Amino acid sequence: MGKTLMKGNEAIGEAAIRAGCLNYFAYPITPQSEVAEYLSRRMPEVGGMFLQGESEVAVSYMLFGASACGARVFTTSSSPGISLMSEGLSYIASAQCPAVFVNIMRGGPGLGGILPSQGDYFQATKGGGHGDYRLLVMAPASVQEAVEMVMLAFPLAEKYRNPVMLLGDGLIGQMMEPVEFPDHLKSEPTNKDKWATNGMDTRGSNKRNLVKSLFLDAGELNEHNLMLKAKYDRMKQEETRYESYNIESDYKTLIVSYGTMSRVCKTAIDNMKDKGIEVGMIRPQTLFPFPEKAVYEAASKESCKIALSIEMSMGQMVEDVERSVKGKLPVRWYGKCGGDVPTPEEVVEAVKSF
Amino acid sequence: MEIDLDGIVIIVGNYGSGKTEVSINLAVNRKRAGLEVRIADLDLVNPYFRSREAKAQLAELGIEVVVPPMQYMQADLPILSPVVAGMIRQPSQLTLLDMGGNDIGANVLAALGDALRGRKIHVFQVVNPFRPFTDTAEGCLKIRNEIEKASRLFINGIIGNANLIDETSVEDIYTGYDFVLELSKRSGLLLKFVTVAAELMPKINIKHFICPVLLIERQLVPPWKKSIPLASKTE
């Protein structure tokens, strides 16, 4: 199949189908609504199902229920909608159900605006819902990468029996780029018979499966949390992904930036290189786990004097960068979050000002 | 071959077919040919990448862009400026209406029915065969049908806008041309013109086409790219 020109939102919908997900629950919200629009047409064509919930709270529990039965499920929303889903996310993570959540971020807090933002970094990487859970968070920088990450998200959700979140800003959802789809994902045999409430007659065992997040016994709940923690530690070992840019040069400034913001930074880095100023960049592709080691190594370079977190939020990523550089360098922040994406010129100015 | 076009021109098509980029460049093309041009951004559906984004550049060329009042510029609310009905009643030499996507986007035209009644109008459907749902003639004709029903207007012609943005090849242009030519034959709709991006133009043999070609100087670009400056050159 040749390339198709697609909006990020459409491509995310198509990628889920190619990943073998035929259960989509969602509630429309700008700037993500085209996923629902696209799948309302495509799902029936492939024998799948799109059910619009009465709210995002309901949607998150539709995912929980369907996933508990062993179905491959996903939803898409934007910032305020993800806030509503956060309760469900905590339950799903505790009950260890695989599910894929896509957040096409808009400006916040509150109703905020409908333009691109990266203001949900804390929510995605540090919590959002209650309790000691983590999401595996991936951040695409192009429509093609969004497709690849969606297709990777399902097997990872199943590998860890944990929700995976794709964190894209409004631009990822709205912009159009040529994309190529890999062949349909070969569904790996999952271990769902061991845990899903998918009917005993098909399992060939007398063991009952129970999906739950209630553990009244203190010791049992502690054990449960330790087991979850071990899972998140394993994610840190096995799932950290990042890209580096101009890292071979003798840069004085190291930029850490993700999503479409990193593409603005790339243009800025190219422009500065033309003028003899070298700047390196680490682009986290996973925000949890954060590429601590890569950032540390990049910051350890002899020439490097400062690290800059550049984001469409008010410095939410700074503490992860600080933690990674372990005090080797000062860490500063540059960003905007009203919906105006910083221009390459503004990034150049920011780099020069520090 | 010149794109011979004036009066009231309405640009429709499916989501992401390139209506806005075509409208902006058509406005520039006609302005450079000496016409007085006004363009209305009637995309009430999608809040990103609308013709209002090119407003400043167009204003420099003397092309007026009619958009909702400033405080609603970034809203995803269905605001139809009353100025639009006025500009239809007292049209410029070329009055361009850049609609939103699909039948939903074309719904707005039904609301302008009174103003449009009895006027000579051209309605063109933008087609990019590299987009989902319009990669077959059936897909294009389905959308034509839906837009005609929603707008209560007939589509008079096709604009071929085959592209994969930065990754468009010369071959893609010719393949896309063959596609819209066939679509034109099948539907009986006039092939009004096809588009070619500025960076590809030197590699394209214009004589290959039986219709005019609109040069696309891309204006709707993501923040890490630069739009092509629309210096006021005449062709």
Task: Give an overview of the whole structure.
The complex is a heterodimer of chains A (354) and B (235). Chain A contains twelve helices and 14 strands. With 354 residues, chain A is an alpha/beta fold. Chain A has two domains: 4-193 and 230-234, Thiamin diphosphate (ThDP)-binding fold, Pyr/PP domains (Rossmann fold), CATH 3.40.50.970; 242-353, Rossmann fold, CATH 3.40.50. A seven-stranded mixed sheet of chain A has the order 3-2-4-5-7-6-12, with helices on both faces. A five-stranded mixed sheet of chain A has the order 9-11-10-13-14, sandwiched between helices. The relative contact order of chain A is 0.13. Chain B is globular, with a radius of gyration of 16 Å. In chain B, strands 3-2-4-1-5-6-7-8 form an eight-stranded parallel sheet, with helices on both faces. Chain B has one domain (7-216): Rossmann fold (3-Layer(aba) Sandwich). The chains are: A alpha/beta (354), B alpha/beta (235).
